[in-house]
Amino acid sequence: MKRIAVLGSTGSIGTQTLDVVAHHPDRFRVEALAAGRNVALVLEQIERFRPHLVSMSDREAAEQVKLALSGSDTRVVYGEEGLIEAAASTDAELVVTAMVGSQGLKPTLAAIEAGKHIGLANKETLVSAGHLVKEAAKRKDVMLLPVDSEHSAIFQCMHRDAPQEIAKIVLTASGGSFRDKTREQLEGVTVKEALAHPNWSMGAKITIDSATMANKGLEVIEAHWLFGLSYDRIEVVIHPESIIHSFVEFVDRSVIAQLGLPDMRVPIQYALTYPERAVSPSRPLDLTEIGKLHFRKMDYERFPCLRMSFECGRLGGSAPTVFNAANEIAVSRFLNGEIAFLDIESIIEQVLEKHDPVRHPPLDQIAEIDEWARRIAREMRL
């Protein structure tokens, strides 16, 4: 029985992770959960999975959980310290990092230092500090198992193949909520329209990122670190059906792809059971039902956030940190009705223009640069 911790247990990836666990009660034991402020859902998860430790985002939420758990053996903590404790201080062998944003960096590093393998669903961790995370994982002999569907697909396609045998990897993108709109048609689009993703059911932030293609940009940077490939060997194509999750072209021009219906439980389960496979609750893929698959070349003028992510990735150092931080604030401002949809990319670009990249920043400097970028993005008036 594999012991796991789930960070971000009440979010989209976290709840689907626990759904996978519930389908295989003989294979997994939940040691720890970390959540935000959704007390009601956390209590349901505690009742079902009986973790030894639960961390909430703040003291008030933790006190509510403690009160409801009076007499229980589950220990409740909170805040950044509690999140790090949930990541590193239990008997979990695998930590699924399913929280959104750069808050995942410190607990992921703490889990790696504690020798725990990582089910990586928090792409911002590698975007913000890929050099630190990869160095720590190598030093501690820890696996970084991708949970994102695209990276899981690449991982499965290139499994056991040497990097020098790979010509390139191709990440597929659904195109998001506005994939069929021109830039002119994006003027004045609403939050509700942006959140209407045609293929996936995801959290608000990642759905907006999908619409701007910032999410694919973060995935490009994550792929660079996960698979050790230069940015010249990473491509993106639009694939509206989201059936081919990504593919690998080898030097002999063979192409291997991973296919499946859009269901995040498949890559989540593969990360949990790796190197084995298990029966999945997901529906099987019937290609005769699908009929046709479509692909479009990426238009970097239409999706400038993706262009900027490649530029930041190639610059390296602190540039991806700034891209991610500015994007998080810009998306939050859009969701709060403060700015227009197209202002997201304008804010990112202007913050990047103000930043002088640092080549190999240590963790404390990454935190300072991240906070600087957030402040500039928050204060920017368009």
Main attributes of the structure:
7-stranded parallel beta sheet; Rna Polymerase Sigma Factor, Chain: A; 3 domains; 5-stranded mixed beta sheet; alpha/beta; 382 residues; 12 strands; Rossmann fold
What would you say this structure looks like, in words?
The chain has 382 residues and is α/β, with parallel strands linked by helices. It has 3 domains: 2-142, NAD(P)-binding Rossmann-like Domain (Rossmann fold); 148-312, no CATH class; 316-382, Rna Polymerase Sigma Factor, Chain: A (Orthogonal Bundle), CATH 1.10.1740.10. 46% of the residues lie in helices and 15% in strands. The chain contains 16 helices and 12 strands. It has helices at 12-23, 39-49, 59-68, 79-88, 105-113, 124-140, 149-157, 191-194, 204-212, 214-227, 265-273, 287-290, 304-315, 319-335, 343-353, 363-379, and strands spanning 2-7, 28-34, 53-56, 75-78, 94-97, 117-120, 144-146, 166-173, 234-238, 244-250, 255-259, 296-297. It has a 7-stranded parallel beta sheet, with helices on both faces. β6, α6 and β7 (144-146) form a beta-alpha-beta unit. α6 packs parallel to α10, α14 packs antiparallel against α15 and α14 runs parallel beside α16 (363-379). The longest helix has 17 residues, at 124-140. The radius of gyration is 20 Å and the shape is globular. The N and C termini lie far apart (54 Å). The mean pLDDT is 95.
